[in-house]
Design goal:
alpha/beta; Rossmann fold; six-stranded mixed beta sheet; four-stranded parallel beta sheet; about 40% helix; binds pyridoxal-5'-phosphate
Length: about 300
């Protein structure tokens, strides 16, 4: 038994069909925690529990914190989440519903993370949101499921925050013999730490995050994610917040599933029909999900971004 579920793989008639292209959606939004993060975090939590951890500590007020809460509840291990003040009341409530103890501390992730780290005792495990090889091995199972379904992608579209999802998908591609299948790595403008690192050919740190796609808001990507840009075929793309939100709304209408702008970014490049994607017969899109945006919030962003 795993803490995550096997998710549907859907050939989207709404998104595919152009130039004989099939668009395959890997529906990670349907994980019990609402995002793909449960795969890697579930795997890491199981491993840390096996090594004797008696408590899990996270400093994410978003989908990572929620996945730790969900994993801890299923394993019967107590969870502490130190979330920054910017964390919405709704996100706090979702984590508490999963029986996590939620402390709110600090103006940003930096302060919350410092307090969380200071709380880590000998019998605790700190669960990083993206930079841990155990996470990547867990995320890789989504590609195993695609292989078992008998689908061979010729490119994978995914969103990049700190790059944990990307490391996991590449690990999955390679362990299924798909070393040459390129990854289209998508970020929003203002959270484009990978795109700027590729451009500079060094792992840069953004001075601040200037995007509503908060789940992509890692100021610096993991070293392993940056290293893959030299070892695996890759294409980096950046979309606007407005395009990401528009994609969320369109996806909601077409597929009846609510996702965050962090996920909408990936959907946006497919909806835009980028010429670079036109040549792929079987395009796999990781619908990474996310629970931090409500329908009302998406509609609100749509209005304010259109006005600006
Ligand atoms: C965490 C997250 C991402 C980014 O994942 P990384 O592993 O940080 O690159 C993208 N979308 C959603 C919904 C997320 O929760």
């Amino acid at each position: 038994m795993t803490l995550h579920i096997e998710t549907p793989l859907i050939a989207s008639s709404a998104m595919g069909g152009k130039n004989g292209q099939t668009v395959w959606l890997k529906m990670e939004a349907l994980q019990p925690s609402g995002s793909f993060k449960l795969r890697g975090i579930g795997h890491a939590c199981e491993e840390y529990a096996r090594r004797g951890a008696k408590r899990f500590i996270s400093s994410s007020g978003g989908n990572a914190g929620l996945a730790v809460a969900c994993a801890g509840r299923q394993l019967g291990v107590p969870v502490v989440v130190v979330a920054p003040e910017t964390t919405s009341e709704r996100a706090r409530e979702l984590m508490r519903r999963e029986q996590a103890e939620v402390f709110v501390h600090g103006a940003s992730f930096t302060e919350a993370n410092a307090l969380a780290l200071s709380m880590v005792g000998e019998r605790d495990a700190f669960i990083h949101p993206f930079d841990d090889p155990l996470l990547w091995t867990g995320h890789a199972t989504m590609i195993d499921e695609v292989a078992h379904a008998g689908v061979t992608p010729d490119a994978v579209v995914l969103s990049v925050g700190g790059g944990g999802l990307m490391c996991g998908v590449i690990e999955g591609l390679r362990r299924n013999g798909w070393d040459k299948v390129p990854v289209i790595a998508v970020e929003t403008d203002g959270a484009d730490s990978l795109a700027q690192s590729i451009e500079a050919d060094t792992r840069i740190e953004l001075p601040r995050i200037a995007s509503i796609a908060t789940s992509l808001g890692a100021r610096q990507v993991a070293q392993a994610a940056f290293d893959w840009t030299h070892k695996h075929p890759m294409n980096s793309m950046v979309v606007s917040d407005q395009a990401a939100v528009a994609a969320c709304i369109r996806f909601m209408d077409e597929h009846r599933v609510v996702v965050e702008p962090a996920c909408g970014a990936s959907l946006a490049v497919v909806y835009a029909g980028h010429p670079e994607l036109a040549g792929f017969r079987n395009l796999l899109v990781i619908v990474c999900g996310g629970v931090t945006a409500t329908v009302a919030q998406l509609q609100d962003w749509e209005r304010t971004l259109a006005a600006s």
